[in-house]
Amino acid sequence: MSNIVIQNLGKVFDGAAKTGGVVALESITCDIPQGEFFCIIGPSGCGKSTLLNILAGFTQPTTGTVTNGGRPILGPGPDRTVMFQEYGLFPWMTVRQNIEFGLKAKGMGAKECAEIVGAYIELVSLVGFEDRYPHQISGGMKQRVSIARALAPDPDIVLMDEPFAALDSLTRDVMQEEILRIWGGAKKTFVLITHNIDEAIFLGDRVLVMTHRPGHIKQILSIDIPRPRDPSIRSIDPRFLGYREHLANLLRREVDDFVTDEAQRRHA
């Protein structure tokens, strides 16, 4: 069971001798319960990806702690998997071979591997495309292969860094619906970084809003819209529209504050 606990997290990157370090994150404290769909939004450069990389174990915090199920996150592990903006598929491997890659790396037997891969191919609606190569399928299909490959090794937590950013708006909407269906079936903890406010509201149980750098938590907003969520809520549900306006105003103020701070710094 995964329960991510972030306590007083800070991250400073070393800088040039004249400029000193860059404070990316400061005083981040929050919990992410097992099975939650948790979204993170904020201005560009606020430390969203840095936070995700710390959760993944790719980088270590300067201050504070992060635990999963009571165990410190000190590096990458099989309890977590990461999806990036790029599909990251091996072009010389078929859909089936890409999905089974992590299972083979774990030393899983051929029969069990085939059963799991078959189940995930069905889960992401790619039956009939098992033997196609990445160049033979659409962008949306590639993203579904990426999702299946991330889920197949049975991680507790799926970390996603803007995985739909490269998709056109229609495909992006479809993939949001698809990821909700997959999340509902897989019962995993999903943590998503996005710049897209509508995406965060449609997918998330809660949305963490970050300030401009150094990144603090400005607000954690609970999305009180029942599941399953029909795609039409994006345009007609007054709760959705209210959340959109609220989050847009928060982010707009952060951008304005950043511009003001930068202007004052240049004229100091």
Could you walk me through the main structural features you see in this protein, from its secondary elements to its overall organization?
- This protein has eight helices and ten strands.
- The chain is an alpha/beta fold.
- It has two domains: 1-79 and 157-250, P-loop containing nucleotide triphosphate hydrolases (Rossmann fold), CATH 3.40.50; 88-154, no CATH class.
- It has a six-stranded mixed β-sheet with strand order 6-7-8-3-9-10, with helices on both faces.
- The longest helix has 29 residues, at 238-266.
Layout of helices and strands, plus pairs?
Layout: E1 4-13, E2 22-32, E3 37-41, H1 48-56, E4 63-68, E5 71-72, E6 80-83, H2 95-105, H3 110-123, H4 139-151, E7 157-161, H5 169-186, E8 189-193, H6 197-203, E9 206-210, E10 217-222, H7 233-236, H8 238-266
Parallel strand pairs: 3-8, 3-9, 6-7, 7-8
Antiparallel strand pairs: 1-2, 1-4, 4-5, 9-10
Keywords:
2 domains, 268 residues, 8 helices, six-stranded mixed β-sheet
Unreliable spans: none
Give me the CATH fold name of the largest domain: Rossmann fold
Question: What is the CA-CA span between the terminal residues?
Answer: 51 Å
* Radius of gyration computed on alpha carbons: 19 Å
By CATH, the superfamily of the largest domain comes out as P-loop containing nucleotide triphosphate hydrolases
Order of helices and strands: EEEHEEEHHHEHEHEEHH
Please estimate the helix content.
25-40%
Count up the domains. Answer: 2
User: Could you say which structural class the secondary elements and strand pairing correspond to?
Assistant: alpha/beta
Overall body shape: globular
Q: Tally of extended strands? A: 10
Give the biggest beta sheet: 6 strands, mixed
* Average pLDDT rating: 88
> What's the helix count?
8
